[in-house]
Amino acid sequence: MKPYVIVCACLCVCVCVLMQNVALSRTADQSSSHPDGPARNAVDGNRDPNFAKGSCSLTHQESNPWWRVDLQNVYTVTAVMITNRNEFENRLDGAEIWIGNSLEDNGAKKSSFCLPHFVFSFLILFSNSEGRYVTVFLPGTKKILTLCEVEVFPSDYADGNHVPNLALRGKAFQSSTASGSSSASKAIDGRRDSTYYKGFCTHTLEETNPWWRLDLRETHAVTSVKVTNRGDCCAQRLDGAEIRIGNSAENNGNDNPKCASISHIGAGKTVTFYCEGGSVMGRFVNVIIPGPKKILTLCEVEVYADQ
Question: Which PANTHER family has this protein been placed in (predicted)?
Answer without folding.
Answer: F5_8 TYPE C DOMAIN-CONTAINING PROTEIN, FTP DOMAIN-CONTAINING PROTEIN
